[in-house]
Amino acid sequence: MKKVLIIGNMGYIGPLVKDQLLNNRTDYILEGFDLGLFGHCLFGASSLPEISLKKQYFGDVRKFPAEILQGIDSVIYLAAISNDPMGKEFETLTHEINHQACFEIAKQAKERGVRNFVLASSCSVYGAGGTEAKKETDPIAPLSAYAVSKVEAEKSLQTIADSNFIVTCLRFATACGDSPRLRLDLILNDFVATAILKNEISILSDGTPLRPLIHVKDMSRALEWGINRESKDGTHFLVLNAGSNRWNFSVLELANLVSEVLGGVKISINKEAPPDKRSYKVNFDLFESLAGNFACKEDIRETILHLAESIKKSGFNQKDFYQSDLIRLNVLRKMRAKNII
């Protein structure tokens, strides 16, 4: 049996990771640790995804109870203040959760014999990357507190990785796709939601920035690969771009694709917008060569159609969804007002 602790499991990605692990093998024992900030943000779910876990712990990663690591074989670290707008408004919290707490928990995990530690990092570390697809060996240029926090976490984790403590930092492309805890503050999900609810796609930039995407199901496959990775030829520490070369798009290309799949939705572009320096194309050759059957499988058109169907079936009709809890910044603001964070 393999005992896995998923830290930050009650967000957008966690429920899909749980499904991937439990549906793929019968020898996983899964436990979760989460503060529960987004636990109520269920979308079209008939029950709590966490009921199928062996245990669910509640707490703040900044005050992590190290004793729950005893007997754990692998740790997946998903906990994060997880995009640029949230990182800008909650910069100190971003550093504390994304970097400091991650590193402290990793050290505690190593002390207690955990074998694999997997960090959900981000391709946003490439920042102003230009049009040439970035490889793991290329220079990074983080432009936000969120991206900087991921860089610092990677650097810290490298200092403690060894043949007995295998660390994998997966630099994920921008997440998308349906989830029991859907987020609409992600570019593809935003475009699909506005197309369904407003019959229009609004591009806030000039449409030229480049973004790679990855379905949350494919993220989950990559994370499963990470918790089972063995150290070969000194790869006890590995930073890896996680995504698919087929899923690199400009913002305008992505909007056009959503419009086409959903029947010709109107697209508006903010031609007066200042240039968005956050533009990067990413090379995923190394991931695809290493991950084997755990490489990306999802189809972009099917992703759009399934997400649109999910929104329609849910009955969600809040056109101004930017004020809803499907935008995670709104949740953080509410929790701050209640002194929970």
Describe this protein with a few key phrases:
341 residues, alpha/beta, Rossmann fold, 7-stranded parallel β-sheet, 3-stranded mixed β-sheet, SDR family oxidoreductase, Epimerase_deHydtase, Lipid_A_modif_metabolic_enz, NAD(P)-bd_dom_sf
Proportion of residues in β-strands = 15-25%
Sum up the overall morphology in one term. Answer: globular
Relative helix content: 25-40%
Query: What is the CATH first-level class name of the domain at 2-181 and 213-244 and 277-297?
Result: Alpha Beta
Number of helices, counting only DSSP H or I runs of 4 residues or more = 10
Protein name: SDR family oxidoreductase
Organism: Leptospira levettii
What would a concise description of this structure say?
This protein has helices at residues 14-24, 84-89, 91-111, 145-158, 187-198, 216-227, 251-261, 285-291, 300-314, 328-337; strands spanning 2-7, 28-34, 55-58, 74-77, 116-122, 128-134, 166-172, 174-176, 200-203, 210-215, 237-242, 248-250, 266-269, 279-282. The protein is an alpha/beta fold and 341 residues long. The chain has a seven-stranded parallel β-sheet, with helices on both faces. Strands 8-10-12 form a three-stranded mixed β-sheet. Strands 6-14 form a two-stranded parallel ribbon.
Write the layout of secondary structure elements.
Layout (H helix, E strand, L loop, with lengths): L1 E6 L6 H11 L3 E7 L20 E4 L15 E4 L6 H6 L1 H21 L4 E7 L5 E7 L10 H14 L7 E7 L1 E3 L10 H12 L1 E4 L6 E6 H12 L9 E6 L5 E3 H11 L4 E4 L9 E4 L2 H7 L8 H15 L13 H10 L4
Protein name: SDR family oxidoreductase
